[in-house]
């Protein structure tokens, strides 16, 4: 047995070494790293976030943006000074040219006394920009809207190469503390999360079920939440190992592409994928534990909007890892089906036609299900259900 174990270890070592060599060589292809791929601004870590307030976070955020201006924008070479580069201050998409820089954290306060408070958590590589329209609607309905820029986002893609998922967790708690300060504890609290932000919203809720010091939300709204991950995502960090050798620094990146989107990164570091996978894995274990010990009975109603076909987020994981375990508390899953009024023919895989039937468990289910088959006809009704907090 010892001989076989040594042989198996040798084979695994050879396979791993081969993968890393191939990855190192392959990383040399494509565009070179730019200043925004190399410079990392200062951010508050999890410990610092747990011991600061909203004003302290905004001050640290302003410092990070100033560093990007001084170390990236001010030092761009001639080839990078083009209108399509978000970091060129002469570009129409440069953040300083917008009336409001949606890369930064913001708070929307209603005219009168707050009817409630809502915290908004954007997705991976995104910025607070992505949920601004829903935040505005909450404000119109008399709610305080707190949208935090999660650490590593909004500045330069290199910032995601250094961030830890615990930083996002503490930033979420900070945003909730600010929402409570502005609106008080006698009004409802909602958490609205998109993609990776949806996973963070659920992580906060489950933490609150275990820790009485955390304010429990009254409702959670999830938009394409990253509840599930692929098995390969568990090993995302390995492909970045060759980057420890400076010559192979590009191995730390899954994508190195031009940055032409003013409010979202186009380049994607390996660490971003790894940290997001750690959130999802931790969340799944926590959901399973809460289901076993009965604590999940305290879960607030969860309203989720998800496409039936999604190549980034696992729809099946949302159904089976989360919704199969929610209590009968008015939770609802809204599924966006393909538009069946249009014949896509060979453009759609055959399995898509029966995807919903295969996704949903047999009834009765502890949650309601709404299927949207014609986005054009039902869009307004569905969007209103996200932003009308009083509805169930």
What does this structure look like?
The chain has 392 residues and is an alpha/beta fold. The chain has a single domain (31-387), classed as 3-Layer(aba) Sandwich (Rossmann fold). It is built from 11 helices and 10 strands. The chain has helices at residues 2-26, 35-38, 46-50, 54-71, 132-140, 165-183, 196-210, 270-293, 315-322, 355-359, 375-387; strands at 106-108, 116-121, 143-148, 189-194, 219-223, 253-255, 268-269, 302-307, 332-336, 368-372. The strands form 2 sheets. Strands 1-3-2-4-5-8-9-10 form an 8-stranded mixed sheet, with helices on both faces. A two-stranded antiparallel sheet has the order 6-7. Helix 6 (165-183) crosses helix 7 (196-210) and helix 7 (196-210) packs parallel to helix 8. The longest helix is centred in the N-terminal third of the chain and has 25 residues, at 2-26. It is globular. It starts with a helix and ends in a 5-residue tail after the last helix.
Give the helix level as a range of percent: 25-40%
- Class from secondary-structure proportions: alpha/beta
Q: N-to-C terminal Cα separation, in Å?
A: 60 Å
* Percentage of β-strand residues: 5-15%
Computed CA radius of gyration, to the nearest angstrom: 22 Å
The tally of beta strands, per DSSP, is 10
Q: Give the CA-based shape.
A: globular
- Taking all residues together, what is the mean pLDDT? 85
Q: Any low-confidence stretches, pLDDT <50, length ≥5? A: 376-392
Q: Give me the oligomer status.
A: single chain
Number of helices: 11
State the fourth-level CATH superfamily: Alpha/Beta hydrolase fold, catalytic domain
How many structural domains? 1
CATH architecture label name: 3-Layer(aba) Sandwich
Strand line-up across the major sheet: 1-3-2-4-5-8-9-10
């Amino acid at each position: 047995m010892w001989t076989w174990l040594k042989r198996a270890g040798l084979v695994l070592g050879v396979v791993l070494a081969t993968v890393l060599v191939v990855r190192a060589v392959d990383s040399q292809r494509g565009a070179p790293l730019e200043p925004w791929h190399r410079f990392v601004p200062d951010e508050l870590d999890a410990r610092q976030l747990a011991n600061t307030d909203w004003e302290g976070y905004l001050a640290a955020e302003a410092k990070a943006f100033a560093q990007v201006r001084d170390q990236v924008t001010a030092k761009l070479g001639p080839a990078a000074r083009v209108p399509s580069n978000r970091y060129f201050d002469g570009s129409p998409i440069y953040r300083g040219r917008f009336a409001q820089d949606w890369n930064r954290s913001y708070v929307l306060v209603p005219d009168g006394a707050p009817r409630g408070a809502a915290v908004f958590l954007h997705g991976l590589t995104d910025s607070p920009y992505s949920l601004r329209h829903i935040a505005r609607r909450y404000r119109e309905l008399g709610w305080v809207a707190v949208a935090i820029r999660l650490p590593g986002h909004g500045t330069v893609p290199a910032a995601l190469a250094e961030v830890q998922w615990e930083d996002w967790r503490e930033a979420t708690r900070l945003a909730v503390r600010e929402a409570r300060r502005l609106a008080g504890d006698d009004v409802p609290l909602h958490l609205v999360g998109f993609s990776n932000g949806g996973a963070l919203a659920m992580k906060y809720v489950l933490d609150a079920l275990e820790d009485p010091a955390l304010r429990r939300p009254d409702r959670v709204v999830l938009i394409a939440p990253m509840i599930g991950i692929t098995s390969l995502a568990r090993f995302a960090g390995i492909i970045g190992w060759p980057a420890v050798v400076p010559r192979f620094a590009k191995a730390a990146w899954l994508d190195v592409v031009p940055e032409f989107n003013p409010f979202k990164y186009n380049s994607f570091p390996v660490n971003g994928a790894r940290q997001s996978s750690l959130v999802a894995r931790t969340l799944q274990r926590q959901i399973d534990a809460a289901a076993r010990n009965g604590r999940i009975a305290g879960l607030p109603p969860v309203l989720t909007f998800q496409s039936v076909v999604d190549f980034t987020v696992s729809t099946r994981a949302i159904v089976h890892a989360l919704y199969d375990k929610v209590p009968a508390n008015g939770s609802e899953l809204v599924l966006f089906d393909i538009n069946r009024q249009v014949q896509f023919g060979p453009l759609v895989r055959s399995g898509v036609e029966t995807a919903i039937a295969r996704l949903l468990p047999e009834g009765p289910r502890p949650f309601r299900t709404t299927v949207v088959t014609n986005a054009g006809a039902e869009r307004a009704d569905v969007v209103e259900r996200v932003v009308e907090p009083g509805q169930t």
